[in-house]
Amino acid sequence: MKIAYDELTGLLPQKGKMRLIDEITECDSENFLVESRTEIRDSCIFFDKESGGLPNYVLFEFAAQSVAALMAKKAEESGGKGKIGFVLSVSNMAFDSDVVEAGSAVNVKATLESQMDNVLSFQAEFFADDKKIGSGKLTLMESEK
């Protein structure tokens, strides 16, 4: 299932310039898999004009927002309300370069690796223009609003 930019407004708590992802290209709430796509623009709040791109560490916020959309969609499909997610850790980060250049199309793929009660860990992979540029693990905790 795809989720367009406008529909993300109702799913994500991030608003305005803090909403970083453009669209969800795949959302499989049954298998805890989400993929997103974002065009890197100089209008992004984290864009670094000096380097001409986006620092690679910002991509984990792309992953966090992608996972937030997945979890909100999962809650919506089961008739419940989305919960607040708190990032507990980002680990095993590895990237091929420090910056993702403007104009690049970044795809994030995140899959559930483990879950214990309300703590979930996702393995994330990052692609720029269809070339893998990095990976890492995102662990979050869901909490009632």
What about the largest sheet? 6 strands, antiparallel
Structural class: alpha+beta
Distance N terminus to C terminus?
A: 26 Å
Give me the Rg, rounded. 14 Å
Please give the count of helices.
Answer: 2
Query: What proportion of the residues form beta strands (DSSP E)?
Result: over 45%
Query: What is the helix fraction of residues, given as a range?
Result: 10-25%
H-E order: HEEEHEEEEE
Shape: globular
Enumerate the spans where pLDDT stays under 50 for 5 or more consecutive residues. none
Q: How is the largest sheet built, in terms of strand order?
A: 1-2-6-7-8-4
Mean pLDDT across residues: 94
Please report the total strand number as a whole number. Answer: 8
How is this structure best described in words?
There is one protein chain. By secondary structure, the protein is of the alpha+beta class. Helices cover 18% and strands 46% of the residues. The chain contains 2 helices and 8 strands, in the order αβββαβββββ. It has helices at 5-11, 59-77; strands at residues 23-28, 33-39, 53-55, 84-95, 99-101, 105-116, 119-128, 131-143. The chain starts with a helix and ends with a strand.
What's the arrangement of secondary structure elements?
Elements: H1 5-11, E1 23-28, E2 33-39, E3 53-55, H2 59-77, E4 84-95, E5 99-101, E6 105-116, E7 119-128, E8 131-143
Antiparallel strand pairs: 1-2, 2-6, 3-5, 4-8, 6-7, 7-8
